[in-house]
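Researcher: First entry.
Model:
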Amino acid sequence: MIANARMYSVNAETAAAWHALLEWVIARAGVAATVIDYPAPQPLTALWARDDLAGAFMCGHPLSQATPRPIVLAAPIPAMPRCAGAPVYWTDIVVRADSAITTIEDTFGKRFGYTTPDSQSGYQALRYLLAPYAKARGGRLFSATVGPLVTPRRVIEAVLAGDCDAGPVDSYALELFRSTEPDFVSPLRVIASTAITPIPALIASSTIDSESCERLADAFRNAGDADELADARGKLRLTGFARPAAADYDVLRLRAREADQLGYSQLA
């Protein structure tokens, strides 16, 4: 079995912290698993399709649609006031700090970046937010969409380089950048945020035996209090882990359907 934290390994420092935390969880659970690297731009869809996952981050949108449904082991609780001690997040829409854009409406007619269409934070959350605007304005909002940019880092780089005027960044990823690379994100300004939704979960493949899954879930819960992980939790801006139900992510599928029903099937 394998474990992986690619989604929130935003740089070498956070990747090392996740590696240490996942190795601790695996050892505590007593399961035979290895923490692997899976750097961008390797497709996350290929990772999620594996049948040997035992602690890998999966985006909520594909999780809500997966058949069979993966087993949710844990979800991080970011140390951010808006999270209020819950395993949640949102999408921040960012522009250059010196941009004249101050509202979501100001982005209309401009170039808007995105990560990939199967991303909740980098695409689907935006569809749900923007669908009513698109319906009111006849369908198209932007002069161009720029992507797939794949990762939050590439979205930020594209905004800073002027390749797009605005773009979406996962709020927890942005918090990790602020903590570990403040100079990288200081030229950015957040102009709007989407609704709060369940944060991506650490999952096991549906083929993994239930006993191993329960041991892993318990180990993730214990990781929130383990003294030896205090440094890793600090670097990862975590207060701990919770274990949401797989059904908690159904809201993401329903919201995507609502955007479809409003005629906004893709960012445009």
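Researcher: Second entry.
Model:
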Amino acid sequence: MIDAGPALFPDERITAAATRTIGGRTFRIGYESRSVTAGDVWLFDPATRVLAAGDLVTLPAPLFDTACAPRWRAALDRLADVDFRVLVPGHGAPMRREAFATYRRAFDRLLDCAAGAQAKADCVDGWMLDAGTLIPAGDAALARSLLDYYIDTKLRADTAKADAPCVGPA
């Protein structure tokens, strides 16, 4: 596969939401600018009501490396408006709508905690409690480690650094 190099590059760039027919099936393609990355794509199949969310949903914790947290929160709100039955995250097990609602609440509470004066450990503990069974038992230590890092380096970093992924057109 690696030897195929350039033949594996995308032949069409997705830069806006659209409806596309692929292999005789119609899909809804969503595009979120500067939320988790510079451009996140999700795919919804109305026939099966399966939503492939990509890195807009990640477990055992949100991955904030290149994220703009406020835009990510808004992107999750838009995903909630999709009439899906099953959501396939970029990292983690597929989830039903109720589990996604749990993820959104945990995400919102994590951002709110990190923006406040609570101790970092309280924010991490809050995520662990709020996300609950979404986090596989074997991934609890990883989740804690990731959030311990992200709260300091991404969510509570100095404003200029933390806002860098949010700069530019939405």
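Model: Note on the second entry: The mean pLDDT is 93.
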